[in-house]
Amino acid sequence: xxxxxxxxxxxxxxxxxxxxxxxxxxxxxxxxxxxxxxxxxxxxxxxxxxxxxxxxxxxxxxxxxxxxxxxxxxxxxxxxxxxxxxxxxxxxxxxxxxxxxxxxxxxxxxxxxxxxxxxxxxxxxxxxxxxxxxxxxxxxxxxxxxxxxxxxxxxxxxxxxxxxxxxxxxxxxxxxxxxxxxxxxxxxxxxxxxxxxxxxxxxxxxxxxxxxxxxxxxxxxxxxxxxxxxxxxxxxxxxxxxxxxxxxxxxxxxxxxxxxxxxxxxxxxxxxxxxxx
Length: 277
What we know:
about 0% strand; elongated; MetI-like fold; mainly alpha; disordered N terminus; about 280 residues
């Protein structure tokens, strides 16, 4: 007769077998990412060698590297990347703060959520790229319109994560805080914020990537500086290498912001690791 332990063995073996693989990937993700990058460059070079497409369609990696050295050396890339980064950071800060504040209010009030949520959902049916021209017309081509587009792009995901995070706080912990006669401010600081932080940072990671998209959308519609503007210049001049340099810079920017959000999450939620230990 098979015992309960026998029934659990296959599942346990499966989990135990996958755990070393997961630990290996976690320890060596740096050089694995490097290998994947080299493979991608190799495939790119093979496509160029076999297909021999025109340079304005797909430039070789060497041409893109030379273009990077050129625009990095004369300060063009640094200037435009700095403009885009400032728009992204301001939009991320403004959009996240407003989304978290409103998300907390909606999480605490079901009535307010029922009143406002239809308008919030309806606003998401309109792509940001569709309203970006209106925002440029209303607020001009300056930095404010780009920051506003960034904030709108990331607003809804951060808002939803905020609502989920605060509503996930166990009810018995609220009873404990009330038994200790904690004020609303103390409950927010010592219970709600720590409990909701993992979900809040999940929204921030998503927002960090979306904010880069928002900035580029705004620069596409109307701008005379920024990486989106640089992409438009490369497209108009059939300088595909310049477009690739701008795209790779945007990817690096988004990945860096995402990584910083992950680092901040680990620092702010050290207590979770201590509890698991």
